[in-house]
Amino acid sequence: MSRVFNFSAGPAALPEPVLRQAAEEMLDWHGSGMSVMEMSHRGKEFIAIHAEAERLLRELLGVPTNYKVLFLQGGAIGENAIVPMNMLRGRTSADYVDTGEWSKKSIKEAQKYGSVNVAASGKAGGYTSIPPREGWTLDPNAAYVHICSNETIGGVEYHWTPDTGDVPLVADMSSNILSKPVDVSQYGLIYGGAQKNIGPAGLTIVIVRDDLIGQALPITPSAFDYKQQADNDSMLNTPPTYGIYIAGLVFNWIKAQGGLEAMAEHNRAKAALLYDFLDASSFFSSPVAIADRSLMNVPFKLRDDALDETFLEGAQARSLLQLKGHRSVGGMRASIYNAMPVEGVKALVAYMQEFEATHG
Amino acid sequence: MSRVFNFSAGPAALPEPVLRQAAEEMLDWHGSGMSVMEMSHRGKEFIAIHAEAERLLRELLGVPTNYKVLFLQGGAIGENAIVPMNMLRGRTSADYVDTGEWSKKSIKEAQKYGSVNVAASGKAGGYTSIPPREGWTLDPNAAYVHICSNETIGGVEYHWTPDTGDVPLVADMSSNILSKPVDVSQYGLIYGGAQKNIGPAGLTIVIVRDDLIGQALPITPSAFDYKQQADNDSMLNTPPTYGIYIAGLVFNWIKAQGGLEAMAEHNRAKAALLYDFLDASSFFSSPVAIADRSLMNVPFKLRDDALDETFLEGAQARSLLQLKGHRSVGGMRASIYNAMPVEGVKALVAYMQEFEATHG
Asked: What count of Cα atoms within 13 Å lies in the side-chain half-sphere of residue B119?
């Protein structure tokens, strides 16, 4: 067996020890005689797995006790509807900050449920930077302020937390959750699909301050009503049990690596390798403003895009996979989430150096 | 490793060869160097896995070409809202047949989106039989007629397909899909959570006639709009990729067993063993009308319910697990889906005989 370096934006590389443990336990979890996939979600074995996953997530992120942790389904695109359904709370509008493709999707979907005030936008600059907080036009009566903490496609990331006063801050953290410490108490709601830093696609994490739930719109499906799910330990419907199990293994792996401080250091080191190379190169370049560069998703361009296919073929031949940029922006993108080892980034940089020497 | 006989109502036992293959392929699917869990849903490997799962499902069920097959999220409880959102199609009301706990949940949720006419109910008889078609009060202007083809909790199952004329028939088949052949063309929509006969919890199957989609209510989340998902091959949001992979392995296993005719024979034989014993026993009994007994979920009662705990403890000691009945009905329940081998049912009946001899 030969494993590759998988730079996919998500679903993405998972820690190899997690996959090994999952393989070993596939037919018989801890002497239960069952796969986790086969367990009743109401049986004592799965209830323990679920509770342990939640406990570890709370420990890693330091989630305050007045926040609920929910394990749901539908991913961030589902949440784009579910968030306004739950969070409008009798108000008529919400503020959204537009930093790229994922913000745009969130805004469009939210408009089905209320009015949206775009408080700031990076559109004029081609979404290569995060609009500074000073320029945001916030509505003090907004139900919440929504941001996307890391734009997976454009590669811009908040390295600061916006102050929104008494209006709850809501963040789509799909692509940078658990990549660094976060002060959860500064947010009203954090959500994200699992398929970057957490586990398999199909699991959605929601962390919500408990005073904000319980006022969902009447048209909210019960399965997506935060209060109903919180009251039922995320088991109003059958949860994605296997995904929760894998997430628990990933949380445990992060803890064993030293937790989120250690992850942040690991991720800064990997990103620095790549950005330093890009900035020194006259052939490859990063389109993103230095202060707002994502440590998770690194878009880059070749000086001559006629060489894009040649670059991708050479990468594939070296088992460096999924480097093609998103179709909406073109170029290349290296996603280097928690589970990407530094060796993967070194191998990529070495290949880019070699490619530049040959074609530059 | 010692595997148990798992009579859970869902998530439920999976075929052992499927779990073995999943374990073997966990770190490296077909020489790709990746786990299926790590694959981009837009990469060629996963697109092939997804297409093969759909092809096998279409082959097994004989799905006509004018039906879409969708792989979604949220389970049947999610669909309880998603179905009316998509299927009301400008009409104001839908007909629902009430056959037990799952029908009741569907009815309650649908009332958020339109008016519900309960066309027939098994309530007066304690939900121990399916109301005969002759007694249904159908509305010719209804958007659809909804049934639950198998009540997982009460243990009643349709062994016939209701004729609803020009009004589309919608069926929650969560707990008996793929247990027997079905004439899909008699239905407008079939849906079900995967966690009984298909694969892991978190995957929802939707099979829908293509002329019925495209008129979702404006408040329908994009992730749950059948038309948008059909137009995007179920990839409008990131699908539950690992669940789809496991489902494909299960479909392949069913095909290797001889397909749905063979499954039906296997399931009839298992159910007959259990029901014949129950009917011959003076200590155990089935509460369900003979004609409407489920071949998947077999509720049964002990003559003296003070012995329930003793029965469950003895079962556990023999590795016969998850036999406790649902809290809403009490007693016992043996769920004997496709993956339950006949040996499991024989072991259960042998234990019941022994228990009756000792305590009867």
From this structure: 26
